[in-house]
Amino acid sequence: MKLRICYIIAISLIFLTACKGPGGVRVIKLGHGLGVTHPVHEAMVFLAERVKEKSGGEMIIKIYPNQQLGSERELVELLQIGSLGMTKVSSAVMESFAPKLQVFSMPYLFRDDEHRDNVLKGPIGKQLLLDGEEFWLRGLCYYDAGKRSFYTKTKPVESPADLQSLKIRVMESNTAINMVKSFGGSPTPVSYGELYTALQQGIVDGAENNPPSLYTSRHYEVCKFYSINEHTAVPDIMIISTKVWKLLSDQEKQWLQEASDESAVYQYKIWAEAVEESLMEMEKAGVTIVYPEQDGFRASVESMYEELKVAQPELYAVIDQIRKQP
Q1: Structurally, what CATH architecture does the domain formed by 2-144+235-276 represent?
Q2: Pair 191, 71: CB distance under 8 Å
Q3: Crossing angle for the helix pair 250-284 and 39-55, nearest 10 degrees?
Q4: 0.85 exceeded by pTM
Q5: Which residues of the chain, if any, have pLDDT below 70?
Q6: Which of 25, 116, 151, 186 could form a disulfide with 110, with the two C-beta atoms 3.0–4.6 Å apart?
């Protein structure tokens, strides 16, 4: 804990955000943990370009990829104190800061892609983007993070029974932990940046993620089995520190929001292309890709919904709204 506090203070002193430089140019720093070949990073570059174009160079987004400024959770904490302007975060990680976003981590929440898009682009999704404001975090837009499935080192996962005794890396998300437990696996939180080594050393036997992330991280070099059971469709969220947001003029807010919305449209397009390319390239590299029946997986996690209905009725009410969305 002391190390984390020292880290945050040190970064705070170095990276002052949303400052105005020479000529009155507004500069906002955006940090994230993905590599520069990832389609989400490409969307952020697009966002920065659109902000610069819209503002005529009066507003600049500087991007720091590859965990240069810290892990995903550390970056969120830097936003909370206003020492970093923006970051991309998985809504699974955000549930620790904005509890209602936990709903997106629930397995098999969406019926299909159309249902998911209607939820995220409609009133429910827009309201949830603002759920973290009391925790100094404001959502600007959603990015497609695809559907998460299991990849493993020694055997494919064709049913929940195949997860028995396997240590599966999960994000720092109670929902993800409970999901893997429901499937019969042993959930093991590991930082994304440390996962390749953890797989190599046997600290974990596998993990779960979408095709582009599995490909760009090169985890497929260690894990030769990819079982596409698509248990969750957890969106990414582009967030800004409310401390930084409040410093912006109405015009600057408009530029940034419009650019964010446009970047989301662009990201959805290149994401679909990246999924196809990733699966093709991994097959070429010798990865065995299987498509297990989902019924057994769905049945294994139904108890999570029943428990949530009793333990957190307000949260379950949001899920009920989502399920009723056309």
Answers
A1: 3-Layer(aba) Sandwich (3.40)
A2: yes
A3: 150
A4: no
A5: 1-23
A6: 116
